[in-house]
Write a sequence for this structure.
């Protein structure tokens, strides 16, 4: 069976080369006689897999030496609780910037653990079509941290600049755009990302945290969610998601082989430009996001007549273009263009969109 073009927002498409290597190594990893799934997380085989994955990620993102890299569980939703558990204790309060439904959810969860203040909110008439510019931010200098979501998968809004939060640590949920382009890690106190979009399969969460922020967890924090305890144990206080870490390591090496994050950004911008140009040239499709805030990763769009949505999706599926239905909160369509989505996939989508428009305009 031929591979389809999978536009799912997550779990998302993975590089075919990575899947083929994993298949080749499924029963016997490097002569060990074992699958990675069967290995002890404390055995020398998996320790080497873990160490190489971390080293490659550090190289790709130029992570400074005073940052810990943690491979944890719980996803981005879990980090909505783990971040305040670990960081809010310094002052008991934190600032949250709302640019979409995921950052809104993050603020709601954090409110269980301290005083949460909305420093900026770009919601207008129930929709998010832009990121709030720094001029609209009202920051609390006594906040323990400032939280943002760098890319909103539902609304298709992305930050292309790094906010200045002064001496207050900046925390970013990068679940949906990590590894898509270079960033300056040193501008952030903590970065977290669920793996199931640009890194690997679901079940793994990457946390990159500055060392001076460790050791401040609230007394109620379970040990397994305590960043300091996990850092001291090299992410192995409990059994980590071993196979997901292995796949992530293969993805990291794959991205490196393609030219690193600068090369990924060029590829991602080319894919997104092709789709956005198609939308902008059409009166049949629309995308309301402010042009300078349009996500490279998640492109929502709407048909002029919503009664054609079902026919559009059925036609797309017949052509091997899958998972294009928009999130239930906003409706419409959504094409997720993560690193592993090829330019050929976007070309196929654009070709189908033009064909469908010609038939129904």
């Amino acid at each position: 069976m031929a591979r389809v073009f999978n536009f799912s927002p997550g779990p998302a498409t993975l590089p075919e080369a990575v899947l083929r290597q994993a298949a080749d190594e499924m029963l016997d990893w490097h002569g060990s006689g074992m699958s990675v799934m069967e290995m002890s997380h404390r055995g020398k085989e998996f320790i080497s897999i873990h160490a190489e994955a971390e080293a490659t990620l550090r190289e790709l993102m130029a992570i400074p030496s005073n940052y810990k890299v943690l491979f944890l569980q719980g996803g981005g939703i879990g980090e909505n609780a783990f971040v305040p558990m670990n960081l809010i204790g310094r002052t008991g309060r934190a600032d949250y910037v709302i640019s979409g439904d995921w950052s809104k959810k993050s603020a709601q969860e954090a409110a269980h653990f301290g005083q949460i203040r909305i420093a900026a909110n770009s919601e207008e008439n129930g929709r998010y079509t832009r990121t709030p510019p720094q001029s609209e931010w009202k920051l609390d200098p006594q906040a323990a941290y400032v939280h943002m979501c760098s890319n909103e998968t539902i609304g298709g809004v992305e930050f292309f600049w790094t906010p200045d939060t002064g001496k207050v640590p900046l925390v970013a949920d990068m679940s949906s755009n990590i590894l898509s382009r270079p960033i300056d890690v040193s501008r952030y106190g903590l970065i977290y990302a669920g793996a199931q979009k640009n890194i690997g399969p679901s079940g793994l969460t990457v946390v990159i945290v500055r060392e001076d922020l460790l050791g401040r967890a609230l007394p109620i924090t379970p040990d397994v969610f305590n960043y300091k305890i996990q850092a001291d144990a090299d992410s192995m206080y409990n059994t980590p998601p071993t196979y997901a870490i292995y796949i992530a390591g293969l993805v990291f090496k794959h991205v490196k082989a393609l030219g690193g994050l600068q090369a990924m950004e060029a590829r991602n911008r080319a894919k997104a430009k092709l789709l956005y140009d198609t939308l902008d040239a059409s009166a049949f499709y629309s995308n309301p996001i402010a042009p300078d805030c349009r996500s490279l990763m998640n492109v929502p769009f709407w048909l002029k007549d919503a009664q054609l949505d079902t026919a559009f999706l059925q036609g797309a599926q017949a052509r091997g273009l899958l998972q294009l239905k928009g999130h239930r909160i906003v409706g419409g369509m959504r094409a997720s263009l993560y690193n592993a989505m090829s330019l050929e996939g976007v070309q196929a989508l654009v070709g189908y969109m033009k064909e469908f428009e010609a038939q129904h305009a």
